[in-house]
Amino acid sequence: MSIALSQHTTTPADWQPAAQQTLRLAGLPESWRADVGIVLGSGLGAAAEHIAEGDCCELRMGEIPGLAAPHVAGHRGRWLFARCGQHRVIVQQGRIHSYEGHSTAAITAHIRLMAALGIRTLILTNAAGGIRREFRPGEFMAIIDHLRAPHAGFPAWSETVAADCVRMQSGPQRGPWESGLIRTLLSVPTSLHIHQGVYAMMPGPAYETPAEVRMLQTLGADAVGMSTIPEALTAADCGVQVLGLSCITNIACGLSSSPLSHAEVTATALTVESQLGTLLRDFLHRL
Fold first, then answer.
1. Inside any domain, residue 13
2. Parent domain of 158
3. Catalytic site positions
4. Burial of 27 from C-beta contacts in 10 A (0-12 / 13-18 / 19+)
């Protein structure tokens, strides 16, 4: 049986049939529930190998009801259903982006499906350009707040999604980033250098110009990328607590003489993905 989902499919009840079909496709019992979801960004997919303990099931995102498969290099496009410590975990390797032509409903569908499958905590990772001058490639930044640039709008909003936003705006005026999760993360011993700062989302796919980086500096951003914020806001709307973690893969344009490329981004991420996987595994053991 196929499940028909559209951009109007936004409530947890809407996603229950898709959740049940996903479990059947993965060969899991209908009673199976996760409590943690993890999204691994550009070049970070192999971190999953260090998170999953014991056997796990996997599905390609294109096979999962309501989800689109990523096509950008460094995004494997798989879901892993695994266990880590006392937690059942859904690990997503890669994501789709608005610059690929996807609607906001499409780029956040995986969050609503994970919520329908039970997650109460979401870990979002991404590759980002460092704006704060002391940041170096291979370091990380725990997200404490975010900026959406004025022209980084979210495309193809349906009336239903717009109504969700009105409801979210009328709720408590706080960001989705949970300080308690950040404190727990920072308590985990690791060789990685983890800063804290503000993440800015730009539309992509082109990297920011030096003028745009200066604008973001003035606005208070510490790192910049092309994803994550819609996912975090959707998770908060679903009652899921969020931890955001940016891998600083390059120095933002205008702050370094080196040219930027997606190959550089993924190459830097690859050098730290095993350490990230170990950090997230140890974090889950403390959660």
1. no
2. 29-286
3. 42, 75, 97, 99-100, 127, 226-227, 250, 262
4. exposed
